[in-house]
Each structure stands twice: as C-alpha cells, then as structure tokens.
Automatic annotation (TrEMBL):
Pfam families: Hydantoinase_B
InterPro entries listed in its UniProt record: Hydantoinase_B, Oxoprolinase-like
Annotated Gene Ontology cellular component terms: cytosol
Record protein name field: Hydantoinase B/oxoprolinase family protein
Domain Hydantoinase B/oxoprolinase: 7-530
Organism from which the protein derives: Plastoroseomonas arctica
GO molecular function terms noted in the UniProt entry: 5-oxoprolinase (ATP-hydrolyzing) activity
Length: 547
C-alpha cells in the first residue's frame, strides 16, 4: 500500500520538530562536555538519519562534519545489520565511515519495536586521540597508524549503557583520559536524548506516518534545490585551488574541479587533482564528498533544508589515489580543514562562472596550534587548542565578508570562546586580541578581516607545541576580480628577545614560560573588482582600520 503524504502544514510542523530535536541535542552537548574544544569552541555536530541512512536533519554546527555523518551511519548499519534497542555504536576510522581520527562518532538506533526507524548521530572532535603527538594532529605522520587510535564501527554498549572495559580501554589510549571520557559520555547522553525525542514522536504518530513524512521532506528539499539550480547558466566550468604543502616536501598541491551544470543537474569531477601525498593533507572519501556538498549548499538559498534531498541533484566524481580520495593507510587527519577548504574553493571558483551573484570570496584557511604543558595553578596537565584570532570570511554580492568568521569548513560554526574563560582555565594571558589591519582581500565587497593575537604562555616549565594548518603562502582566494586575502603569519617571540616564524606543519616546538605567540591571521577574499567599491565604504575602511 502506498504511503500517505502529509499535508503541507503537518509536513512543516514535522520538519521543524526534527530541527528542534537536533538543536536540543546540541545544547545538551554544549552543557555537558568536559573539554575546551567542545564546550567553548563547539567543535561538534548533530544529525538524524532515517533507517536508510539518509540525512533527515542537522543542526547549525560544523558543515564538514554533517555531510560525512551519513557515511558513519551506513558503516554501522553494514557492520551491525540487526541493531537492538539500547545499542550504542562508536567509530572514527576514516576508512570505515569516519572523516579523520579526532572526530569520534556515536550512533544510536531508534527502534519501533523490532523495526529500525532512525539513527541518532553525534560527532565530536576530541582534545586528544593518542598517536605520536598531543592534540589529535601529527604533522610528521606518513601513515594513519601514527595519527592516533583507529576505531572501526564497534558496539560500545548495550541497554543504553557503555561497557566500562571498552570505555576504559579507549580513554587509556589518550593523554587526557578524564576529558575524553567525559566528552564521550556527553556524546552518548546527547544521542540518547535524540532517541527519546524520536521515540515520543514515533509513539504519537507511528513509524509509517513518519517515514512518509521523511520522504516528503526530502522530496521538497530536492525540488527546492533543483528550482534554484535550474536558474544557473549551463556549461562546463573549471576551478582550482592550491595547498601550500604537505609538510614533507610536496608544495603547491593542486585541487581541481571540473563542474558540469546541465538543467537541474550538477556534476563535480575532482579527478584532475594531484596524486595523494606523504603528509596528512590527504582526504578520506566521506570528507571529500562532504566538502563538495558544502560548496553546493553555500550557493543555495539559506531556506533550503540541507538534508539528503537537497543533494540529490549533485553527482561527485573522484579518483582513488588522489589528494581528495586517498588509499587506505594514508594519513588524513588535517583533511577536515585541508584539503576540504581547497575543495570548496575550487568548486566555488568554477561555479562563480555559472552563478556569479551567489559565489563568494574565499574564506580564510586554518592554522592551528596545540600546546601541551602543566598548569602550576592546578598542578595538572593540559592541552590547549588555538581557536582565537580566526581568519576572515569572503565577500559576496550582498556585502563585505564577516571578520574573524573562520574557514570554509566551519562557516562560523567554530567559536573562539571567551578570552577571560580561557585565561581562567589555562595558564595563558591574552595581551592583545583584535582585527588585523590590511588582512582583508580588496574588492567591490572586501573580505572580512583576520584576527591579531599576542598570547603569553604562563605554564609551569616548558611546553611542547605542534602546528597543523595551511595558508602562509596561499591566502583566501578573491572571486570575480576580487583580491586574495592576506596569508597567515605566526611568530613565536622568546622571552630573551629572539624570534622564530612558525611553519604550518611542525612538531616538537618548545615554548618556555614567558614566551609570546604573535598570530596574524589571514583575511577573506574580496568579491568583484576593487574599482567597484563604494566610496563611502572605502572611507569607512580607512577610519576603522587605518587602511
């Protein structure tokens, strides 16, 4: 018997109910996680998938996570074809449904009796995941086994309770077991919150009614996306972006997108990208697919529901063994930042020729520093991840880019949090934190400014640091005649007056108490030729930033 399609009002109510569930799950995560990277910087995402592992709803968190999360649900479904009520599944392996090792994913089945109806999915970046160096990123890695603990899909618990022995084994393989344990339990709690809300909905409306509603919601998003896509110019368009390097000698690494737009269909072919490299800027397949989906989503209207239906017009082609789809065993930990940002940039560059009014200048690139040491105030080890002094977003046809908004892959979802809170929780002193003059790419609408930071380390004895990022050679791309944003420039100034410029991919950097990190973050790319900039806007730039 064919399913009944809900009426439009009931459908709108149901879609917003799904949205409310994922938002509530996100709020639960924010309030119960232990680590700075989650409860301050919000590096986590929430999704609901149906029994076919189709993305039904997501919250506004980290875009690069969400497009890849259905792959995690599918990996669990394939590994455990007969889930039971109360099961808890966990994975992180990039070659078994994950994106990169620091992102743990909890997947909980939502059952109506013996019938699987939904998956409640929580993905969160851990402050440490083991491996050869602290903080989850190892710029020295040449194979994935040097990057951290690999977890293919496993049953973490039953009866809605994680197994203590498995949990203990997992957190023992990290440098901060208290934080990782607390964060994992927060993830389980948020996933179970989603399960409870969906069970209440199933009890009220029934599984078949909800399944029909999901089909209609996805169909509606598909139709909405196709209407927009149909208004873009047909043709074959090409765009390229470059990574600075892989940390092992490869430089100016090409990401190339050949995009075919025909009617209401869009095909993105990344086969012309560079071969995979030695270092950790290679991408897993789920991350690559998610990056392309991000680029497409950014060019749609904000009102389009970003679910599996919206991405039906999109076909992605890639070649295994290239930088965008590495063969199993290759290191990939940086991929959620780089090369995902470059994939987005290449796709948007190509489609700027098809829908120029929707394209935007490049967003700044990620340049992360992780510092490990001891806090003498608490006599406790710490790992701190730099999220402050964010890069700028790109300009667009509607106006200037957002200053310190972040990178393509997070689109403002990552936060740097309170300076005062960071100083309270860690042995740090923020001497200076403001916008960086001259960092924005010029254009009819300029890019956003990057941040400028002076950070004094006040640890108990020397700290060790590593860096993981890109963008000291290639700034965020200008679009349609706009200029590129300024690249990053990070300097470590010693207490004795000496200085050293930091590379984007280093391990084993010593930071002594009293040393200062000087961060000059890149700005966003401009949109349109600078000659078209409004005279009053140019005057405001001079007044506000001295340009």
């Amino acid at each position: 018997m064919p399913r009944m399609t809900p009426d439009p009002i009931a459908l709108a109510v149901l879609e917003n109910r799904f949205r409310a569930i994922v938002e509530e799950m996100g709020e639960a995560m924010l309030r119960t996680t232990y680590s700075q990277i989650l409860n301050s910087s919000r590096d986590f995402s929430i999704a609901l998938c149906d029994s076919a592992c189709r993305l039904v709803a997501q919250a506004d968190h980290i875009p690069v996570h969400v497009g890849a999360m259905p792959f995690a649900a599918r990996a669990v479904a394939d590994a455990f074809p007969d889930p039971r009520e109360g099961d808890i599944f966990l994975l992180n392996d990039p070659y078994h449904g994950g994106s990169h090792l620091p992102d743990l994913t909890i997947v909980v089945p939502v059952m109506e009796g013996a019938t699987l109806r939904f998956w409640s999915v929580v993905r969160a970046h851990q402050t440490d995941i083991g491996g050869a160096t602290h903080g989850g990123y190892n710029p020295g890695a040449t194979e994935i086994w040097q990057e951290g603990l690999r977890i293919p899909p496993i049953r973490l618990g039953e009866g809605r309770t994680p197994r203590p022995d498995l949990l203990h084994m997992l957190v023992t393989n990290t440098r901060l077991p208290r934080e990782v344990r607390g964060d994992m339990l927060a993830m389980v709690g948020a996933a179970h919150l989603g399960e409870r809300r969906l069970l209440a909905l199933l009890d009220k409306q029934g599984g078949e009614t909800l399944a029909a509603g999901v089909d209609a919601i996805l169909d509606h998003a598909e139709a909405h996306a196709r209407r927009i896509l149909g208004g873009w110019a047909d043709g074959v368009f090409e765009g390229s972006a470059f990574l600075d390097d892989d940390g092992h000698g490869a430089e100016d690494i090409l990401i190339h997108a050949r995009v075919t737009k025909q009617g209401e269909r869009l095909t993105v072919d990344l086969s012309g990208s560079a071969p995979q490299v030695v270092g950790f800027v290679n991408s897993s397949y789920p991350n690559m697919w998610s990056a392309v989906a991000m680029a497409f989503a950014y060019l749609l209207d904000p009102e389009v529901a970003k679910n599996a239906g919206a991405f039906r017009p999109l076909t992605v082609i890639a070649k295994e063994g290239t930088i965008v789809w590495a063969r199993p065993g290759a290191p990939v930990t940086l991929c959620t930042s780089h090369c995902s940002n470059e994939i987005v940039e290449a796709v948007v560059k190509a489609l700027a020729q098809s829908c120029p009014e929707r394209a935007m200048g490049g967003w700044g690139r990620r340049f992360r520093v992780a510092i490990q040491g001891r806090d003498r105030r608490r006599d406790r080890a710490f790992v701190w991840h730099l999220f402050h002094a964010r890069p700028g977003g790109g300009g667009s046809a509607r106006g200037d880019g957002w200053s310190t908004a972040g990178e393509w892959h997070s689109a403002g979802g990552l936060k740097f949090g309170s300076v005062e809170m960071a100083e309270t929780r860690f042995p740090l002193f923020f001497r200076h934190h403001e916008f960086r003059p001259g960092s924005a790419g010029d254009g009819t609408h300029r890019g956003g400014y990057g941040g400028a930071l002076e950070l004094v380390v006040e640890s108990d004895g020397p700290c060790r640091a590593n860096t993981a990022g890109d963008g000291v050679r290639h700034g965020a791309a200008g679009m349609l005649g706009g200029e590129d944003g300024a690249p990053h420039h990070y300097v470590l100034k010693r207490a004795d007056g000496s200085e050293r410029v930091l590379k984007t991919k280093e391990v084993g950097i010593t930071i002594a108490p009293g040393d200062t990190l000087h961060v000059q973050a890149g700005g966003g790319g401009g949109w349109g030729p600078p000659s078209g900039r409004d005279v009053d806007a140019r005057a405001r730039d001079i007044v506000s930033m001295g340009e």
